[in-house]
Amino acid sequence: MSYSAPIDRYTGKINKVEIGTGDARVQVGGETTQPFYLFEGEMPNRPRLAMEVCDEAPGDWAKALEDVLGDVWDDPVKWAAKCKDEFGADLICLRLLSIDPNGADKGPDEALEVVRKVADSVEIPLIIYGCGNAAKDGEVLKKVAEQMEGRAMVLGPAVEENYKTISAAAMGFGHNVAGETPIDVNMAKQLNILMTNLGMPAQRILIDPSTGALGYGLEYTYSVIERDRLTALQQNDAMMQMPIICDMGREAWKAKEAKVGTDEHPEYGDPVKRGIMWEAIGVTSLLVAGADIVVVRHPETVKLMRSTMEGLGVK
After folding, report:
1. pTM of the model
2. Domains of the chain
């Protein structure tokens, strides 16, 4: 007897969002089916890999990261260039750690200077993430949006406490917004509704669902992203049809299992291989759940994910 596998057809479609300008711009989204289900629908844009760059040298990163990035991580311009030229990053996620009120507490003008230098030195699009302090992020990203008008960057994370400031600035000066909520479908939808009610176009919004790494609740993250995507495609919910961005590198490499050395846990094995695999397994899970952009730290993760996506039929 012949057998035909059941094919699902969805009424919904993921929005296409353009990041950056000119020949270097990147488009994400546009799917009409589940991730990599190319036999059911279209996946016109492959998931994109962004590499994280900080505006100050990180003090607590694993040695495996220091070995490949330590020669440039005190200079965000060189760091970004290395990610683009040597490691093949699709985007740069510039994290403004120095503006943290509990750290260096640098002001908007100082942060803007770093953003401008990085933007002028690399052609690939930028994601600009703040320090996680809602008030300070809103203040700084507003200045960045205004002075970098028309660059079509992604600004974030926009949260309940600062989405009005960030969305208004992005809307007024031609940028996109990543709205972050704590791993919850309804909260993600509500934030999208609030931003679109302000006038922010849905085609310039990305969903940051918050990310748990392997060992940090990855299974919950996976199921929530899967539900986000089903709501968008199956229920044709316009407020959930935004592409998804996941900040995995930060979460993966802060896990003890990813960064402790063999002196502390010899039974864990090679710390370099272990850390890379910890990140790569998490990224793979997010990609097959429905992520359109994943932020990573180690260049070997980029190579592994490119190979993985090619194996799944997406180049």
Report:
1. 0.96
2. 18-308 (3.20.20.20)
